[in-house]
Known about the structure:
156 residues; 6 strands; globular
Amino acid sequence: MTAQLDSIQSVTASQVYKSTFLSHSSSLSSNQVQYPIEVSFCDHEQAQLAYLLRLLKQASEQNRWIMFIGADALLDRQLLSNAGVDINKVLVLKEKNKQSTQALMAKALHMGNCSAVIASGNVQEYCNKTIHDAAVHGNSMAFIINRTQQANTLLH
């Protein structure tokens, strides 16, 4: 069991997006993807953001919500709309009621009402069995946005 916990690692948005083409399927399944999905970008390098937007567009085609946990995870409404994301399916959870973002993410993923759940922070805080299992159970995508890390070391 410990070996399983140690092997949970994040992947990047570009890796997930590219895997949809390798599997010849435009739909995503949580059984195909490691979670959480790391999205690191800065003002100079926004390739990961572009991949995230493509994945969110695919997610918005499902009959489920896209949830942003906290205002710091939220992307610009116009940016989402321009990328083809259905804004009517976007939820923003601003009040956390003293719960950790990780706990809220796990709950939202597990319930299965969201095709994608997005939070911000250090991806290592989310690399655990609870988040991974919740994403698989709810057939949902878990994204962690990190705007402060230098993206050039994470792009593929």
